[in-house]
Each structure stands twice: as C-alpha cells, then as structure tokens.
C-alpha cells in the first residue's frame, strides 16, 4: 500500500507546507511507507519536473528540497512496495512524455492487461511494478483513440472512464487508486483504497489517499468514481463517473 497527493492550484507555489509540515503529510506518512518517494511539479511554461528516490522521505533531505519546487500542479507519492524491488525504477510517479501517473494499491494479476498493451508501451516499462504496467495499459488505450497528444476533452474522459470500468471488472484487477495528469488536467480514480477530495474556494483542489489535516472540507470520493480537475482556463472539478460520499455519512 502507498500514499499519494495531487494538488491543482490557481497560483504557483512551493509545496513544503503540504508535503513536509502537514500533520499527515507525505513525509510523516513515509514512516509507514518507506520504500521510496516521488514529487512531480508542473508549470505551464516549463512542463514537468520529476524527482524520485528509492529512500524513505523522512530520512532524505532531497525530499524537502523537491517539496520546494514551484508549480501549479503537484503529484507526490510515498511507496510501500508490494510488487517489485525497492529501486528508483519502481518508484512513483512514472512519466511518459507529457503524462505522469501514480498508483495506490496492488493489481492482483496483470494477465488481463497483457494482451491489451501496445508493444511500444510495453517496451517502455522499466521496472517490475504492476503500477507501471497499468500506466502503460492506460496509455495504450489513449494511443489507440489518438488522444495521447491531444488536449484533454470529452473523448479523453470517455476513454479513461471505459478503461477504468474495464479494470474494475477484470478478474484480478485488485485495488486501483490512480492519478493521471498531463499537467493541465488531473484524473483521479478510486477503487479498493480510500480517496478524499478538498476544494479550497476556487484557489486549489486536492486529492489524497487520506486527509493531511483535520480541515472539515475534505470529502470522500465514492468507490468506483473518476474525478477530473482542470487547471485552465479556470479551476474546476467534476465527477465523471460515480459520486462523492455524502458529508453526513
């Protein structure tokens, strides 16, 4: 099991408060998830900057340095490895071109994906994790639809919704909490693990495996749901498939 955090913000800023200083930030959670960390930060002008290490974040000064990266989109992850060695190549987030991906959970069997990968995407897999294979499979679906290099739109929503429904129904699909982003749009899907969302008055939207603090505005994403968050032209959040859990629950 792992922990992840994604943030889309209207104003560029560093992420130390979220990653290092928060009571349940990823640095603190890395005591329980010590098998590597990754921080991906996106700026409209410069694209992605991705830093990964196969060390516990709480023991690694480089994690705090990476948390100072300034951008409008953040994807961050601490790993508790279940498949694959403790190695940088197995550390999330993974990047292919403009797409960055991270996963919380274990795919019990990857057999259902095996014949659905494109040869090109399968050749790109560098590590041993089920997570990286799932990323390759999702990119194969976008490639087949001609959407990999296109701005995210209704067709992208449809392909990812269908792909993730298929993954949920697959025998051996396992837990599929995933975040996928091209730097302009963030998709977050819940299946088999907890996932929470927080909207901050038009300033930021956060998605996390668990709330990093006691703020009352964290809401639970319902099981089987897919959420889309856009940075531009205005910050917006929509549930494409599924629902949010009622606040009274």
Description:
The structure is a single chain. The protein is built from seven helices and 13 strands. The chain has 249 residues and is an alpha+beta fold. Strand 7 (177-181) and strand 8 (185-189) form a beta hairpin. The protein is globular and about 45 Å long. The model has no long low-confidence stretch (mean pLDDT 93).
Share of β-strand residues: 25-35%
* Oligomer description: single chain
Distance between the termini: 25 Å
Q: How many strands appear in the DSSP assignment? A: 13
What is the highest CATH level, the class?
Alpha Beta
Low-confidence stretches: none
Give the averaged pLDDT, no decimals: 93
What order do the helices and strands come in, and which of them pair?
Blueprint: E1 3-13, H1 16-21, H2 26-29, E2 37-43, E3 47-53, H3 61-66, E4 71-78, E5 94-96, E6 99-104, H4 111-114, H5 119-124, H6 130-144, H7 154-169, E7 177-181, E8 185-189, E9 196-200, E10 204-208, E11 218-220, E12 226-230, E13 236-241
Antiparallel strand pairs: 1-4, 1-10, 2-3, 2-4, 5-6, 6-7, 7-8, 8-12, 9-10, 9-11, 12-13
Keywords:
about 250 residues, alpha+beta, Glutamine Phosphoribosylpyrophosphate, subunit 1, domain 1, 7-stranded antiparallel beta sheet, 6-stranded antiparallel beta sheet, 7 helices, 13 strands, about 25% helix, about 30% strand, globular
